[in-house]
Design a protein that fits this description.
Largest sheet of chain A: 10 strands, mixed
Helix content of chain C: over 70%
Oligomer: heterotrimer
Number of strands of chain C: 2
Structural class of chain C: mainly alpha
CATH architecture of the largest domain in chain A: 3-Layer(aba) Sandwich
Distance between the termini of chain A: 87 Å
Order of helices and strands of chain A: HHHEHEHEEEHEHEHEEEHEHHE
Number of domains of chain A: 3
Strand content of chain A: 15-25%
CATH superfamily of one domain in chain C: MetI-like
Structural class of chain A: alpha/beta
Number of helices of chain C: 13
CATH topology of the largest domain in chain A: D-Maltodextrin-Binding Protein, domain 2
Chains: A alpha/beta (316), B mainly alpha (275), C mainly alpha (300)
CATH superfamily of the largest domain in chain A: Periplasmic binding protein-like II
Strand order of the largest sheet of chain C: 1-2
Distance between the termini of chain C: 22 Å
Strand content of chain C: under 5%
Helix content of chain A: 25-40%
Largest interface: B-C, 93 and 95 residues
Radius of gyration of chain A: 31 Å
Radius of gyration of chain C: 25 Å
CATH topology of one domain in chain C: MetI-like fold
Shape of chain A: globular
Number of helices of chain A: 11
CATH class of the largest domain in chain A: Alpha Beta
Chain lengths: 316, 275, 300
């Protein structure tokens, strides 16, 4: 730094000259102070920035119209993909999709925190009077799955009920190997669980010792890898997608689950997938629901996801 | 009676073993995440949105959500924590008040995250009407960050040599002038370290943000918008178990972010140690 | 700390102007307010969570709540004994597994490692303490669970998997804090022991560790606090069955995991029960903090 040398030559008297150059030597504030000033500046800048953002952007949001769709994890894939396609066609609309479980969705839509509550189960008795309008969007079968290594290929509904109630505890009791049955259940927010409970269990309670898993994918993965496990998932998830591991779907009362048997109800464990709204759907909500019921989605996304379009099959 | 030298050797060997095991297990975990995650990392992964049924595509909105909420929490907690530390280190006299403040700080630091999440939900989301938003989450996170920053600041202030203060008082400065112009700037590096470490903790929180920010994928613009942070995204991907590559990628980026914070905290400390 | 310029306008000598005095006092009050925020926050948590949890006492019965053995929300039975037991099983197992490893590592770092080795290992341990719990849970669910499933023939969810995951999580925390405690023991004690002919190991386990006992116990208690409050990692591997497990490989549930599982859809008394569990967790963590503070006071 040349000015340092010059300082020695000129001495302190000529300091005024040095102010032209960058502050050096003893004129500079200490490092700590610099950090401090920099930090203060940073904080102010960030504060200003966020104020600017909230002021400016609250007036001109990119997507003006916003609806929230939440509920069933089974319906989540359909809702999400439909939302993406919908938003591509409607640049001013924002559709927020989340999946916490059918019960959560129903609670949210009746409380008003979401516009569409998706559910893979019907309304319970105590939920009937909440003013919710039902728009079914697809059929679904619930497949009972076991690992491919399990020699058992089918059960009756009564056997299934006893297995999940914890009364039958060994595979040998239903024609399989001598191996304890490992139950895999879904969490209580799950519409799949509710539907299974209503159709299969009727009034018998689930065995509380069953492992409770919060996601369809997890149930499938766990069952696929454990020879003694049994669980239930939506038919649409039985076929392998991302990974190569596969599961086996049991025949129930002699009927194997597939699109045909679910649609004509020869397969006993089937259900409707619902979109619930508080009152008749209007505005953006109605547009989105209509879009989901259109052929684009029904014959595309719904079928791809392994469900059955609502137009086919008899009403339940 | 076994020779004491033999026991010594055996015991030392076991201690080496313990340390190696610790480092090895944790290192293996990180390596596992790294190897599986690095395949997925690409500019697309970082900067695009999740698409499709199984969050294929990228994780950009989650990265933004994480950084946004952490920055907001830093803004909220830093002034309060630093000034509180100033009080404790410079003004307060040992007694019941100070004792209870410290007890409160320690308690706040050890609150189970689920309790903080429920509290945040009950207070910020419902009672204060902020709904699931960056604001609610930032407020809840700042409660967790407060004790960390305060502790670091207090230690930093106490580490400032007394002669600096005396010099200042000797020149006739008031207390506040001394604190703001001499003590705090001198303590600044350690304070910044504390802030960065606290931010690292905030980035890794899951339960707290789950209940205050929700989980809908969204790009947050105002503090009242909701979003999905990286930790929640990782949790959902892991639990669904379908799109594992994306999960590994998210985990890797998350770890990288936190390690980045921690390493820079150390670097700041080392670099400015002279002060 | 004496400050000669703190303004007291006495009759005889006024050191600062009135305006400065006012400003200084206001600033001091501001700082006090900031410090008080901590107390306020803790009080608020107490009040809010407690208020939401209170109906469990009036509408359900505290005794029935704590000692009941059936947790079944569909039949409105909220006995949390299996959950309390689950929390303890998971925590104590993790501590049993992790503490020896952690304290061993701490002793290694403070007494056995050369400065070079230490400069590598200690930062590694500290950095690892910052890895978030979801990542551990992720590791547990992806890798550990299938391993455990394979060699135990069960699903792989249960206490054992949770022990391993939690132990890995709390080791860095306990190790770092224990090492701090060990390093604060003055060198002189060790030298005295060596002078009497003790080997390094004898010095460690007869002299150093007992001297640092309280600090190490502090570290363990804080690790315990972290383990009990841990949610996400445990949630992913524990199996979530609210029953008393009959084997280390059977699914069970803890207070924290049950809250996370049920919260999205819980209403009414169910939600109150969840808040009540949260209140209990909070009280318990405060008790742990109080214990640590008490022990520290004993040490001084």
């Amino acid at each position: 730094m040349q000015h340092r040398k010059s300082r020695h030559v000129y001495g302190r008297g000529h300091r005024s000259v040095l102010f032209l150059s960058s502050r050096a030597g003893s004129d500079r504030p200490s490092r700590g102070t610099r950090v401090y000033s920099a930090a203060r500046l940073g904080v102010l800048a960030a504060l200003a920035f966020s104020l600017l953002m909230s002021a400016g952007c609250s007036n001109q949001k990119q997507r003006v119209d916003e609806i929230s769709v939440s509920g069933s994890t089974t319906i989540l894939p359909i809702a999400e993909q439909a939302a993406e396609l919908f938003m591509a066609d409607h640049p001013t609309a924002n559709v927020l999709v989340s999946g916490l479980g059918s019960s959560a969705g129903i609670e949210a839509v009746s409380a008003g925190t979401t516009q569409i509550g998706t559910s893979s189960r019907d309304l319970k008795e105590e939920e009937q009077g909440l003013g919710l309008i039902d728009t079914p969007i697809a059929y679904d079968g619930i497949a009972v799955i076991v690992s491919e290594e399990n020699p058992v290929s089918g059960l009756t509904i009564e056997q299934l009920r006893s297995v999940f109630a914890g009364e039958i505890t060994n595979w040998s009791e239903v024609g399989g190997e001598d191996r304890p049955i490992e139950l895999v259940n879904r969490d209580e927010a799950s519409g799949t669980r509710e539907a299974f409970k209503k159709i299969v269990m009727e009034d018998k309670p689930f065995d509380r010792r069953a492992a409770v898993l919060p996601g369809t994918g997890q149930v499938r993965d766990v069952v696929a890898r454990a020879p003694g496990a049994i669980g239930y998932i939506s038919l649409g998830f039985v076929a392998p997608r991302f990974n190569s591991i596969s599961v086996k779907a049991l025949k129930i009362d002699g009927v194997a689950p597939n699109e045909k048997t679910v649609a004509d109800q020869t397969y006993p464990i089937g259900r409707l997938l619902h979109f619930f709204t508080k009152g008749e759907p209007t505005g953006l909500t109605k547009e989105y629901i209509d879009f989901v019921l259109s052929d684009t989605i029904q014959q595309g996304v719904v079928v791809d996801a392994g469900f059955i379009p609502i137009a086919e099959g008899g009403a339940k | 009676m076994i020779d004491k030298r033999l026991t010594n050797k055996l015991a030392l060997g076991m201690l080496w073993g313990a340390a190696l095991l610790t480092v090895a297990v944790l290192g293996a975990l990180l390596l596992y995440v790294f190897i599986n995650g690095i395949k997925v990392i690409s500019p697309e992964f970082i900067f695009t949105w999740p698409q499709g049924v199984n969050a294929e595509g990228g994780i950009w909105p989650t990265i933004v959500s994480t950084i946004y909420v952490t920055a907001l929490a830093m803004l909220i907690s830093t002034p309060i924590a630093v000034l509180a530390a100033v009080y404790l280190a410079e003004y307060a006299r040992q007694g019941k008040t100070v004792s209870s403040i410290r007890f409160a700080a320690d308690s706040l630091a050890s609150v189970p995250s689920i309790v903080m999440g429920l509290f945040g939900f009950a207070l910020f989301v419902e009672a204060m009407g902020l709904n699931l938003s960056m604001a609610s989450a930032a407020l809840a996170l700042s409660l967790l960050m407060l004790p960390i920053i305060m502790r670091a600041t207090e230690e930093a202030i106490r580490a400032v040599p007394k002669y600096m203060r005396w010099g200042s008082y000797g020149l006739g400065a008031t207390k506040w002038q001394t604190v703001s112009k001499i003590v705090l700037p001198a303590a600044a590096p350690r304070i910044v370290t504390g802030i960065v470490l606290a931010a690292g903790r905030a980035v890794g929180e899951t339960a707290v943000v789950l209940y205050t920010m929700g989980q809908a994928v969204n790009m947050p613009i105002t503090p009242l918008d909701s979003g999905r942070p990286m930790t929640v995204h990782l949790y959902l991907l892991a639990v669904e178990g379908i799109n594992l590559p994306a999960a590994f990628g998210t985990a890797l980026l998350l770890i990288a972010l936190i390690l980045g914070f921690n390493l820079s905290a150390r670097w700041i400390l080392k670099h400015y140690r002279k002060v | 700390m004496s400050e000669p310029t703190e303004g007291h306008s006495t009759g005889t000598l006024q050191l600062v102007s009135r305006s400065t005095y006012v400003k200084e006092t206001l600033l001091k009050s501001l700082f006090f307010a900031c410090a008080f925020v901590f107390v306020l926050a803790v009080a608020l948590i107490f009040v809010f969570v407690g208020w939401k949890a209170w109906p469990i006492v009036t509408d359900y019965g505290l005794g029935k709540f704590i000692t009941g053995t059936v947790w079944s929300s569909s039949t409105e039975e909220f006995g949390i004994l299996p959950l309390i037991v689950g929390s303890f099983i998971v925590t104590l197992g993790a501590l049993a597994l992790g503490t020896p490893l952690a304290v061993g590592t701490a002793v290694f770092l403070s007494d056995v490692a050369s400065p070079r080795v230490r400069s590598f290992v200690r930062p590694a341990v500290e950095l690892l303490a910052g890895v978030p719990s979801v990542v551990y849970g992720f590791f547990g669910i992806i890798l550990l669970r299938s391993l455990v499933a394979q060699f135990s023939g069960t699903l792989g969810f249960g206490a054992f998997t949770a022990w391993v995951v939690l132990a890995i999580m709390i080791v860095p925390t306990i190790a770092a804090l224990s090492e701090d405690a060990l390093r604060s023991i003055p060198e002189g004690i060790r030298e005295a022991s060596y002078a009497m002919g003790a080997t390094q190991w004898q010095t460690i386990y007869k002299v150093v560790v007992p001297a640092a006992k309280i600090g190490i116990i502090d570290a363990i208690i804080l690790g315990m606090g972290r383990a009990i409050g841990e949610t996400m990692a445990v949630l992913m591997v524990v199996g979530n069955a609210p029953v008393f497990p009959n084997s280390p490989f059977a699914p069970l549930s803890t207070m924290t995991t049950q809250i996370v599982m049920d919260m999205p859809y819980a209403v009414g008394l169910h939600r109150t029960a969840l808040f009540a569990m949260a209140a209990m967790l909070f009280i318990f963590s405060m008790l742990l903090v109080a214990t640590v503070r008490l022990l520290s006071r004993l040490r001084d």
